[in-house]
Amino acid sequence: MRQQTTGSPMSFFKKMKDRLFRSSDKIDEGLVAIVDAAAEAPTAPLAPAPEPVVGRTPDSVPIPPASKPPVASAPTAPIPSPIASTPAPPPPVEKPGLLGRLFKGEPEVARRALDDAMLEQLEEVLISADMGVDTALRVTSNMAEGRMGKRLSVAEIKGLMADEITRIMEPVALPMPIYAKKPQVVLVVGVNGSGKTTTIGKLASQFRAAGKSVIIAAGDTFRAAAVEQLQVWGQRAGVPVLTAPEGSDPASLAFDAMEQAQREGADLLMIDTAGRLQNRADLMEELSKIVRVIRKKDPDAPHNTLLVLDATTGQNALNQVEIFRKIADVSGLVMTKLDGTAKGGVLVALADKFGLPIHAIGVGEQIDDLAPFDPDDFARALVGLD
Questions:
Q1: 254/296 Cα distance (integer angstroms)
Q2: Is there a domain that residue 288 lies in?
Q3: Pairing with 206, which of 38, 153, 160, 381 sits 20 to 30 Å away (CA)?
């Protein structure tokens, strides 16, 4: 059974499009520059007709300049005619045809023929949006298939680009699975500052609105600010937050949270974790201990391990996926802060490289600024299509 949080898809798409303006503007400006550069490039002038050489003899042998015959000078002023004359009428103006009259005043849409040089420029635009070299090559190669030499406008290029991005992302656009077993344990991992705490609060709120009972465990016991922030989100969502004294063992808190969730018959237990990458060995051991402890209560836990990524980190997000896949058995991704970056293309690179499910994306700090990932809406917002 799968549960997808509901909301207002159209309003979220509009919000996403409005807030992805940095990425879409960057791509739009690049595409306009590529097409306009070709449209404004001066065409090679025709070779001028050779000027006749004055004084060429019938046998085409030129006469030296010194021997050129004098040329009679023309009169400096016209001889007045004894008969009054009216000025010559202007040449007739050619009237435009029917199509010309119908489309008069409409600007011509700039187009450019798709060639190797244009493909390289398109790749650079996508790479500048943090799509990565391999993914940018894949997108542009698919765009070019069967279209080389075809003249394309900016709008047509955007449409083709959005189609290819959607094709890459459709297989990974999956909501977080919801199971019948109670409690379903969701372990949330990610580096400090990635948006783990706000993501947990938003998800808890949405699941509660869908009729699920939720408990949150503030497992990042080393950061008092993280615990306080979770408590604020818990109050907003109407969800209890279990805490422990600062510096206490996160695994012990997770065990207590499992007991309470089982005792109360909660549908979901969401466990926050620390995100210190300075010492990966410590973090790996901490997460491993949490998993070992909760498996004493449920051998199949955790049922989901969500990695929260900050879009503003760009290509570094790929490195984080590599690290956390080794540290924890990551089952899905949530991308936050897409509204704060001009490099939203990193999400396409993640989908292309890892193929991990993308459950949700966030574009703000409000409780409804997190929604299930829709590949078509995202692709259109990313390239600036309505």
A1: 11
A2: yes
A3: 381
Residue 77 is predicted with a pLDDT of 47
What tokens does 383 get?
Answer: 């390239």
Where do we find the tokens 């695994």?
Answer: 251
- pLDDT of 20: 56
Expressed as residue numbers, the domain containing 190 is 10-26+172-383
Q: Is residue 107 assigned to a domain? A: no
- Give the list of residues 6+ apart from residue 68 with CB closer than 8 angstroms, or none: 54, 55
Residue 208: exposure state from Cβ atoms within 10 A (0-12, 13-18, ≥19)? middle
- Tell me, yes or no, whether 186 lies in a domain: yes
> How many CB atoms are closer than 10 A to CB 50?
6
pLDDT the model gives residue 279: 73
For residues 30 and 121, give the distance between their C-alpha atoms in angstroms, rounded to a whole number: 8
Q: What amino acid is encoded at 383 in this protein?
A: V
Q: What pTM does this model have?
A: 0.78
Residue 218 near residue 231, CB atoms below 8 Å: yes
* 103 domain residue, yes or no: no
Q: What is the pLDDT of residue 14?
A: 61
Q: What span, in angstroms and rounded, lies between the C-alpha atoms of 89 and 365?
A: 73
| H or E segment to which residue 151 belongs | strand 151-152
Residues 6+ apart with CB under 8 A from 153: 35, 109, 110, 111
Using CB atoms within 10 A of its CB, is residue 89 exposed (0-12), middle (13-18) or buried (19+)? exposed
Predicted confidence at residue 109, as pLDDT, reads: 86
Peptide bond into 91 cis (omega under 30): no
12, 373 contact by CB (below 8 A)? no
At 366 the pLDDT is 82
CATH number of the structural domain spanning residue 233: 3.40.50.300
| Number of other CB atoms surrounding residue 41 within 10 Å | 9
Q: Is the Cβ–Cβ distance between 348 and 169 less than 8 Å?
A: yes
What is the C-alpha to C-alpha distance for residues 16 and 14, in angstroms, rounded to an integer?
A: 5
Q: Tell me the mean pLDDT per 10 residues along the chain, length 386.
A: 45 58 72 80 48 46 46 46 48 48 58 95 93 95 96 96 97 94 95 92 94 96 90 94 94 96 97 84 90 94 96 91 92 89 84 97 84 92 86
